Structure formats: structure tokens, C-alpha cells
């Protein structure tokens, strides 16, 4: 059984260790975060403080976009976009990684203190009943303060999240 997490697409480009987990992992990725990859690809704003790291991450973003645009993967993504909250068939990244793209829709439920993408991440986690992986300390803090009933892990705790999700996903 694979471990399941909701995650933003760019996190996988930034944190390469997410692509080499010790056990099978399914990342559930809201489509809006796929669209963010194109914004990051074309942005002159640095994603990372260190110029070498920024160049590396932008290269990884380009690789990710290229992979997602391959005909079979593009077709899978397009299937998810036909109906709100529908999911793509799995897009495989090696032996241990599968992505499921979700056509998440922001319903403004948490709009007063979360941006639309954050809201989609939370709503996806609630619908799928799986934890969120994020490096955004402010998002994690807001989830806790608002008492949103979703489990969230800092990406720095990825190994623990994999172990803990064994119990969470049963």
C-alpha cells in the first residue's frame, strides 16, 4: 500500500528527496499547483536564496513540465479537467512515485485567511482524507490556528510522515 499526501507540484522540484522515498508514495496534486510551475518557470523572481540552488530548482521545474507535457501524461491530466474534483489516472515517476492530479475547486471556505491554492490543498486533503506535505510554516500555523481537521507535515519531517501515514491511511 502506498502512502498518500497532498502536495504542491513545485515542492517536488525543490525537494528532490521526495522523488526517492523508501516506500511507494502517491502525491495528490491540485491542478492549480501544476499551473504554478509555468509561472515559476517564466518568473525572474528567485525561488531560492542561493543562485546555484535557484538555477537547479528552475531546471527541475523545466524537467517536470516537460514530463507532464508528454502525450500520455497530458492526456491523463486533461481527463481530470473535465469535471470539478475529478482525478487523473496515476502518472508514474519511477517505481515508487505516482501522482494523481485533482481538478480542485476553491470554494472560498477558508478564503478569509488562506489564498485560493492553499484552500484547494486543504480541501483536497479533507476530501481524500490524507495529510498535507508543505514547507510553508505560515500555512501550517494557519491550519493549526483555524483548527482545520487535516493532518499536515513539514517536508523536513518527510521520513516521519511516511511512517506515521501508515496508520493515518488505513
Describe the structure in your own words.
With 170 residues, the protein is an alpha/beta fold. The chain has helices at residues 9-14, 31-42, 51-68, 71-80, 116-128, 137-145, 158-168; strands at residues 3-6, 25-30, 91-93, 97-102, 132-134, 152-154. It has a four-stranded mixed beta sheet with strand order 1-2-4-3. Mean pLDDT is 89; it is low at 166-170.
Please tell me what the overall shape is. Answer: globular
Total count of helical runs of at least 4 residues: 7
Low-confidence sequence ranges: 166-170
> What portion of residues belong to β-strands?
5-15%
Largest sheet: 4 strands, mixed
Helix percent reads 40-55%
Radius of gyration: 15 Å
Strand order of the largest sheet: 1-2-4-3
Secondary-structure-based class equals alpha/beta
What is the first-to-last residue Cα distance? Answer: 9 Å
Give me the count of strands: 6
SSE arrangement:
Layout: E1 3-6, H1 9-14, E2 25-30, H2 31-42, H3 51-68, H4 71-80, E3 91-93, E4 97-102, H5 116-128, E5 132-134, H6 137-145, E6 152-154, H7 158-168
Parallel strand pairs: 1-2, 2-4, 5-6
Antiparallel strand pairs: 3-4
Helix pairs in contact: 2-3
Descriptive tags:
about 170 residues, four-stranded mixed beta sheet, two-stranded parallel sheet, 7 helices, 6 strands, about 15% strand
Summarize the structure.
By secondary structure, this protein is of the alpha/beta class.
